[in-house]
Arginine biosynthesis bifunctional protein ArgJ
Amino acid sequence: MSTAVSPLAPKSLPTLPPVAGVRLATAAAGIRYTERTDVLLATFAPGTSVAGVFTRSRCPSAPVEWCRDRLAGGSIGALVVNSGNANAFTGKNGRAATALTAELAAAAVGCSESEVFLASTGVIGEPLDARKFEGVMSRLAADAVEDGWEAAARAIMTTDTFPKLATRSVEVSGRTVTINGIAKGAGMIAPDMATMLAYVATDAAISAQALQALLARAADRSFNCVTVDGDTSTSDTLMAFATGAAGNAKIASADDPALAAFAAAFESLLIELAQLVARDGEGARKFVTVEVSGAESEASARRIALSIANSPLVKTAVAGEDANWGRVVMAVGKAGEPADRDRLSIRFGDVRVAVDGERDPAYDEALVSAYMKNEEILIAVDIGLGDGFARVWTCDLTEGYIAINADYRS
Amino acid sequence: MSTAVSPLAPKSLPTLPPVAGVRLATAAAGIRYTERTDVLLATFAPGTSVAGVFTRSRCPSAPVEWCRDRLAGGSIGALVVNSGNANAFTGKNGRAATALTAELAAAAVGCSESEVFLASTGVIGEPLDARKFEGVMSRLAADAVEDGWEAAARAIMTTDTFPKLATRSVEVSGRTVTINGIAKGAGMIAPDMATMLAYVATDAAISAQALQALLARAADRSFNCVTVDGDTSTSDTLMAFATGAAGNAKIASADDPALAAFAAAFESLLIELAQLVARDGEGARKFVTVEVSGAESEASARRIALSIANSPLVKTAVAGEDANWGRVVMAVGKAGEPADRDRLSIRFGDVRVAVDGERDPAYDEALVSAYMKNEEILIAVDIGLGDGFARVWTCDLTEGYIAINADYRS
């Protein structure tokens, strides 16, 4: 497997400040490989609110079911994430492994088992030996520090070629609060769910209910707008934590005006993390934004945009720096959404290639070919029927994707 | 672009006998490349019945619209198919090109323009200069012969690496009749439509209405069960012709018992052609059959089977000879159909790898790894909920697919 960093990776990693009330530690528990950091423990101050959105897979992993069942409690004491094994499709053993992991974490951290949240990422179907956590959990809890964000982002990587981190600072009711986020994910990425693993923590005081509403809304405009290969993981998890350490008057509703700036910063952080995932798409060499306007509705625009973003033929054309807009027409046609061929127009960047259902009379192959050499490509389609708009992000499809996925498990 | 023949191609091409009432001729009209056979003319005896099923794309090509509008007439005099240009997304010019082509063919063959059927395959969005047919049409009509089937199959190829032909001989009301079929297609192949270009001709006497019913039913069990990349062409066309030259009493209904053997042979021929398309999937090295049983309904089984067959992660795992059944679980989960993780079982060939939602207790990695080295792979999933069954065919996803599609247009 190639370990070269994606050419679309940010030139430098941001430095994340501490989030008061959150401590992080990582260790090598030998889940799948020895000598490789593969477990993250995060501990949270008492009373930290928790929210989460999870995969819509009908075959979710054991940790996803564990988290879903405990979300109503509204508070978190510890988060345990391991890489190397997804603990998915592992039956009764899988459920036992989640229970044992939670028991170990609760004892080490000193919280209730129902306040432990879990995630596992890696191979599906291999039994997870949770006893391996036994040897490291106490030390993790003792070692946890406030400035461990980059190490945390690295510990949850699988086929990722770079760690994914983002941070924001914003005012809530006169207090300056921090929002930190980390994510992992490079393949088996598609929307229609809360994609891959991503964790966002803030020291703002926000109720679990408000945080959940905020998270669901922002997920829809960020992680649910990114796709690498249209495949949906059994383990996708996006969680948010609010420790309250900043000391603002606790916000009870996502629509509280005092939360407006926070909500905007929160959403932009999630978009940044989601885009980092597309930028690390397996084998990616180009970052692609697909914009669909003029659809009959926002939902229709989104389905058309995803049909384009998921089309292997569109993605290979981008890889080949070929402005093959005929394949964009194909992808619009197969989306099954209202479309009138004779009203379609298509742009690559600022270059209009098709209008009113035909090649643009001013079509200039040299101009559009030059545009396709860029590392960031915009494909913009106007359906010409209504006001529906959507924007999604993806990457190109290269030989690298095949090489990575044809030998991932072996 | 590689021109090596797919390793999954049949070892030899069948020799197709004549179908009385059908004559074929090919020529190099210079549609896109010079000196390359790129146009097929088929002529039909007066009174030949016609049936067709076409792409469900919302942005169909001009020839698809032309054919749909004329199908109700029920009879065909001539068929013109060109490769090199799809005449899709070509607006008014595209419609004018179909009209001119039909006019030229009707004059050359001596039939009505409304009895001319058309198809174009190749690049989307380039205007098709139908005047190029003018120089070749009369000669094509004069040269047409009954034994031109292999040449016809070759003339409609684009990225195909081998011509696709099949034949059957069967009794209808005491007369022996022939069924011949040809097809083209290698990428931009997905079901939910009548896939790619395929033409089936017989000398049996069958009404257009009966032929249409027969064709729609058989398409659903053949071409609609094959997928290469999940992409849906703007031009997909499957047509059937019945000349009546065999002299059987004309069959008026697809359910006529006299047609039973014919219907079975017709369907098996369509399945053979559809499988040939998957065997020529761009870059394919393995032929994959996906069987889903125990789903809540046949439709549900089919959606799950297609979710597996279209998953890039499943297809790259097969390419890597990796029995990565976790990805099969993932694809079942993302299909959105009823499924209960704890009832799933999965086989690769005869090797059961998972049962009751866990890895098979008798799982033998060496055994299943050996199986994955085969050129033909069966992935069988039992959902454990009901009686719904479906079978679809696909191929693996290799670097070859990327290489072909990243530089197809250039």
Observations:
- Confidence is low (pLDDT under 50) at residues 189-195 of chain A.
- Chain A touches chain B through 73 residues (CB under 8 Å).
- Chain A has two domains: 22-279, 287-406.
- Chain A has eleven helices and 15 strands.
